């Protein structure tokens, strides 16, 4: 195996356990395809999506670990943020999310929820993991 020190420190992958793989897969498949990811691996209890050298993995949580439910304000993952590239792309994703019935977080301040220099959309996945798409 050849070493590649140019990628040292870059994110390799993120693995997220989900309550209902079917529901989460449908949500993330749509969103990640819009962001340029493709399905990387599939198995009975999970799926992964890849873009470049980084991939995201979603795995069905075992029944015995479903409680307590996830909440982003507890210790652990708060949110995932993706580059959106342009305001037009972020606006398009926002419209698509609304069409799909996904609530936009911080609606009263959208798309400047993080201040006047940050153009972004915030929303939650089916398990209420916060997602951000930003410039």
SS-derived structural category = alpha/beta
Placed side by side, the strands forming the largest sheet appear as 1-4-3-2
Q: What form results from the Cα inertia axes?
A: globular
Radius of gyration: 16 Å
Residue windows where pLDDT falls under 50 for at least 5 positions:
none
Mean of residue pLDDT? 94
| Main β-sheet description | 4 strands, mixed
CATH level 1 name of the largest domain:
Alpha Beta
CATH topology of the largest domain: 2,3-Dihydroxybiphenyl 1,2-Dioxygenase, domain 1
CATH superfamily of the largest domain: 2,3-Dihydroxybiphenyl 1,2-Dioxygenase, domain 1
- Report the β-strand fraction as a percent range: 25-35%
For the record, the count of structural domains works out to 2
Number of distinct beta strands: 7
Helicity level, as a percent range? 10-25%
What is the helix/strand order? EHEEEEHEE
User: What is the distance, rounded to the nearest whole angstrom, between the alpha carbons of the first and last residues?
Assistant: 36 Å
Please, how many helices?
Answer: 2
CATH architecture descriptor of the largest domain: Roll
